[in-house]
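Let's sit down with a protein and look at its sequence and fold side by side. Once you have written the record down, we can walk along the chain together.
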Amino acid sequence: MKEADVESQFDTAVAAYEHSVEEMPFREHIEAYSVFRAVGGVTGRDVLDLGCGSGAYVRRLRHEGAARVVGVDESTAMVEYARRREEHEKLGVEYLAADVSDISDASGSTSLASTAFAGQFDVVTAVYVLPYAPTQAALAAFCTTARRALCERGGRFVAAILNPAFAPDPQYYRPYGMRLSAPRPRREGAPGHMTAWIGEEVLDVDFFCWSAAAHEQALRAAGFDHISWIRPEVSEKGREEYGEDHWAAYLSCPHALIIQADAGPRAEPSTPRTD
């Protein structure tokens, strides 16, 4: 799959992606619950959501009290949908159609490394963005984009990623509305495929497999100095509504993990000696 294909596969999936939040209980009771626990309080903070899709997390971050929230996605269809909702709901959030792996220094509107975003955010989030990096260079670029967006005093990057050790049985996650497949053994960058059943809609997307080591290498190279891996948990409401048994298989081998990567203040440039 070429990089350009990532945009096209989501341009036709806006409705399915938006409905998945309501139709797939794990997205609310495991995914969102775990991501927000890792992010921590956002009241009064500035947040950038990379790969924002239809804007579900952007809107929620704003409702959680974030002072400024910007969503970026390379799918123009996703961004157009999110902007239409913003026109109606008037939450005061921003959206940009751009390639989140673009780390060029050009001042074009699609460069996230440009002055439009560099150093402006306290928190950067990315839910299922890193699995769409087709090369190690692209994986590193995603992480560099996140680091450059954080303010001078540092901040936090929270990413929901594909579990490098997701279950080999393609049907394992079928009770949670998904089917995942990838070749064995899973070499770095191996292509995989996910089918998700969302009500009457079907979402088919391709992804790439990256090891924990590949993720950590990309994050450290980008300037993150503390990396934590977090297994997802179920909300109390999710346990009450569906029961412990429903979630047992998923929690035993989740299809996704959370990475919490923290970065300290940027190093001050050294002053040349004059003597």
Remarks:
- The two ends are 56 Å apart (CA to CA).
